[in-house]
Write a structure and sequence with these properties.
Blueprint lengths: L2 E9 L3 H19 L2 E6 L4 H7 L5 H8 L3 E6 L13 H9 L4 E7 L12 H4 L3 E7 L19 E5 L2 E5 L6 H16 L4 E6 L5 H14 L6 E6 H10 L6 E4 L1 H12 L9 E9 L4 E7 L16 H13 L4 H16 L17 H11 L1
Parallel strand pairs: 1-2, 1-3, 3-12, 5-10, 8-9, 8-10
Antiparallel strand pairs: 4-5, 4-11, 6-7, 11-12
Helix pairs in contact: 1-10, 1-12, 6-7, 8-9, 10-11, 11-12
The chain binds adenosine-5'-triphosphate (ATP) and magnesium ion.
Protein name: 3-isopropylmalate dehydrogenase
Pathway: Amino-acid biosynthesis; L-leucine biosynthesis; L-leucine from 3-methyl-2-oxobutanoate: step 3/4
Cofactor: Mn(2+); Mg(2+)
Length: 367
């Protein structure tokens, strides 16, 4: 029994709808197990821009700082070309809290094998997690001090117009993310696949070297290297052969979108972003569904809240240290799917479609 503070940043579009269901599930767990969850709310995204002039205010960042975890909905929906972008809220939180580890579990539920466009016999048994490096690499390249200039730019030279991006990783950045992968693997099927492009990139050669050094400290975990192009292929050929995949920022971005197709719908996939900041019982983190604000279905009680609910389960596991309670939620979600409850994104012939709130209620009852 414990007291925990959770900052809820519901955001835009379907964000508030799915987050409300996740909150209801957390409240139910709190009652059942005698915990006290204090929810504090802040605005993010377009909602915050309209009300406060920024995608996330200093006050809201301060709220996050005073809590054990952040439950995040979605941001988006600005008109193209707008000066202040809703997504800036996420970048500020990721940078500010140094959320360098992005965890994306991909679990193909048995009862959803037919909901995907991929053959059931290929999907069978898929249960993997991608550990993506989130604060370095190509997206945060910097040339200084080796070459003065901007991190990435389009510039005029005597050769004409050219553009440059830099893929830079320090040993320390590689080591800390690989370590996260091995620690997670120990609690799973004990296999780590490190994905790189070591036949072409120096950063990947270093990545391999550091990954091998870390792997030596985990003799109980099976370790392999895989080139990113081969990984992209194997994900669709034999996804069940993977347990934990660890990779750099850009590769992780692409591979996780690809892997999301294995679960049947974006509305099924949770994520966690973790850094080095500790809470009393775990690691401070931000938890959000991988989908966006989906303005096309917002406000219609159509969105699938399971990704948000599964994100809440990850929150319990990683930030609050409540492993049992997290598993209870995950099992309840699986049971609801087994029993045939489907939101519109999982539409299957012969199955009745229920709304966002109703799905939330089904999970609560099952919990
Ligand atoms: P954003 O700019 O915020 O990313 P988007 O329009 O790209 O918004 P996404 O949320 O990325 O929308 O989703 C793409 C499509 O997938 C949406 O059009 C929506 O219909 C569907 N979708 C996304 N999330 C869900 C969900 N939780 N339940 C049902 N359908 C969803
Ligand atoms: Mg999107």
């Amino acid at each position: 029994m414990g007291n925990y503070t959770i900052t809820v940043l519901a955001g835009d579009g379907i964000g508030p709808e799915v987050t409300a269901q996740a909150e209801k599930v957390l409240e139910t767990v709190a009652q059942l197990y005698g915990h006290t969850f204090t929810f504090q709310r802040g605005l993010v995204g377009l909602t915050a821009i309209e009300a406060e002039g920024a995608a996330i205010s200093d006050e809201t960042v301060a709220l996050c700082e005073q809590s054990d975890a952040i439950l995040f909905g979605a941001v988006g929906g600005a008109t193209p070309g707008a000066k202040v972008k809703p997504e800036q809220a996420l970048f500020r939180l990721r940078k500010g809290f140094q959320f360098f580890a992005n965890l994306r579990p991909v679990h193909t539920f048995q009862a959803l094998l037919n909901a995907s466009t991929i053959k059931p016999e290929v999907l069978q048994g898929t249960d993997l997690i991608v550990v993506r490096e989130l604060t370095g690499g190509l997206y945060y390249g910097h040339l200084e001090p080796a070459v003065p200039g901007k991190p990435s730019e389009i510039r005029q030279t005597e050769r004409g117009t050219e553009a440059i991006d830099t893929l830079l990783y320090t040993e320390e950045e590689i080591e800390r993310i690989v370590r996260v992968a091995f620690e997670i693997a120990r609690g799973r099927r004990k296999k780590v696949t490190s994905v790189d492009k070591a036949n072409v990139l120096s950063s990947s050669v270093l990545w391999r070297r550091v990954a091998e050094r870390v792997a030596a400290e985990y003799p109980d975990v099976t370790f392999e290297h895989l080139l990113v192009d081969a990984c992209a292929m194997h994900l669709l050929r034999q996804p069940s052969s993977f347990d934990v995949i660890v990779t750099e920022n850009l590769f992780g971005d692409i591979l996780t979108d690809e892997a999301s197709m294995l679960a049947g719908s974006m509305g099924m996939l949770p994520s966690a972003s973790l850094g080095t900041r500790r809470t009393a019982h775990g690691t401070f983190g931000l938890y959000e569904p991988i989908h966006g604000s989906a303005p096309d279905i917002a406000g219609q009680d159509k969105a699938n809240p399971l990704a948000a609910i599964l994100s809440a389960a990850m929150l319990l596991r990683h930030s609050l240290g409540l492993e049992h309670e997290a598993t209870v939620i995950e099992k309840a979600v699986e049971r609801c799917i087994d029993e045939g409850y489907r939101t519109a994104d999982l539409r299957e012939s012969g199955k009745e479609v229920i709304g966002t709130k109703e799905m939330g209620n089904r999970v609560i009852e099952t919990v």
